[in-house]
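Bug: token stream looks shifted between consecutive jobs. Job 1:
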Amino acid sequence: FGGAGMRLDNVSSGKSADKAGLLRNDIITKMGIHEVGNVEEYMHALSKFKKGDTIDVVILRNGISITKKLTFL
């Protein structure tokens, strides 16, 4: 993936992303207060959360920005 953000190649059934309604090929652009421009920024943002935290995740789906609530399991 060459654009800004982090594209989901897979969403595992029953996991946090699945329960939040994220889909394969969604592009994560923000997690909580953390901007996600690439996989390194995604990993950095991910390290800031723990099990039980609920955050807003901003995704691009078919060019449309969508905010979802995600709870880390």
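Job 2, same session, no restart:
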Amino acid sequence: GFWAIDEKPTGSRDPFALRRAALGVIRIVTENGLSFPLKVEADLLAFFHDRLKVTLRDAGARHDLVDAVISKDSDDMLEITRRVEALSALLSTDDGKNLLAGYKRAANILAAEEKKDGKTYDAVSDQTRFTVAEETGLASAIKSVDAAAAVKVKANDYKSAISSLATLRAPVDAFFEKVLVNDPDAAIRANRLHLLAALRNTMHLVADFSKIAG
């Protein structure tokens, strides 16, 4: 109601204690394990996001993990909380840490090459152009994980979606150990960049890993 009459809190002013009220809603939802999507207008949803971030950070959650799982359309406070917990659990393991390092390496290569080439690499890789087994292995793993993660995320089974990502660690490590992305052959180079883009896209199904420090 206060939003409807444009009586929103400001940085220094919250005369109707709306921040406290939002925290109360979040506490009721999360402490009682309620999946309760907040179908509200975008600005009010963003307000709830800010309050939830405060709550999670006060509870010890890393701010970058919170940012990684919240999108502008995330309307289930309990689901956001569970996603932060699952992502934190993944990144506490060696598989998670190494996978994040592999993601960062892939993202950095893509950013540099896309800027240099003035184009985005986002097409499906051509398996007929693979020249080493590690390319095929990574492509196969991405295809499998992409399908599994999409289904699990849609079903709000975020923990399983996170677990499926962990299986990418070995093929990602093998790829970077054996494969030179910037091959002298332009077609092979482009194909490998498309493969890295597929890795980036699949991981983004679960969280925006570009927002995670490390």
